[in-house]
Amino acid sequence: MSLRELVVLGTSSAVPTRHRNHNGYLLLWDGEGFLFDPGEGTQRQMLLAGVSAHDITWICLTHLHGDHCLGVPGVVQRIARDGVAHPVTAVYPASGRAYWERLRHATVFADTDVIAERPLSGPAVELPAGPVTLTARPLSHPVEAYGYRIDEPDGRRMLPDRLAARGVRGPLIGRLQREGVVTAPDGSTVTLEECSAPRPGQSVAFIMDTRMCDNVHVLAEGVDLLIIESTFLDVDADLADAYGHLTAAQAGQVAARAGARHLVLTHFSERYGHADEPRFTAEAAACYSGPVTLARDLQRVPVPRRRRSAS
User: Fold this and answer.
1) pLDDT value of position 307
2) Is 267 annotated as a binding residue?
3) Which pTM was predicted?
4) Active-site position among 67, 151, 224, 297
5) What is the pLDDT of residue 311?
6) 214 among the known binding-site residues?
7) 67 in a known ligand binding site
8) Domains of the chain by range and CATH?
9) Which tens digit of pLDDT belongs to each residue from 140-170?
10) Percent of the chain with pLDDT over 90
């Protein structure tokens, strides 16, 4: 059975708090594991969340500020220590390569050769990632930063009533899916389009440290799950813009404009306390009518069930 869910490992911004670890997000997707922005303490958070180094197939850094990457040494060494045998691809902004190298080889340890590096540069980078495509686009932050989007290809779902009506059953169904056309028992030709309906692929966007820019909207367009920073409340909108961040209200605006199906708010400034948390949800919900999750450490958020188009 497929598993598509976000495992939240940390939700703070520059400074961890008693209740929120530095960033860390593991998106599990049908055997792939995309580890986004592992901040300090990620290795321990993974243990508490019940996930392991063997679940990681990608390490994706949005940028090289510490709260988004100081967990890399521990994660890399855990990959080596646990004997992870499958390839792990590391993607990060090319301008931060010197910092990546320091993190990748931070201490003395028995190294691993399974990690392949893929520095990012340019306006858009698309990478095949198992059953999906991983796309990176630059954002607007004081240092070079990228946001990510994961897209499953569109497919088709079979319609049992139409299959039965045409006498297509058993092994013929699989052949119809593979080849697009079969000969029914009565000698007639049956096409895939006759017995199926479009099945939109699922998608997830991961948008961290950025002020509003065109690529925020491009990355978020039509996604099933939008994971986005909401570092500040609207009262501090000027600070957010000055430091290259978003407010909760802006995150809600992005989700509404994009038609996102589920909004996950995260990356909260330590300046706000527990009493302020409902304000983040309220500000986002004032702009966006869909479900809003205020992310908490060790929480699991499933990717919404796929859309079903009309038959």
Assistant:
1) 74
2) yes
3) 0.93
4) 67
5) 45
6) no
7) yes
8) 4-154+200-302 (3.60.15.10), 157-197 (no CATH)
9) 999 999 999 999 999 999 999 999 999 999 9
10) 97
Q: Does 67 qualify as catalytic in the annotation?
A: yes
Across the range 191-200, mean pLDDT stands at: 94
Amino acid at 279: R
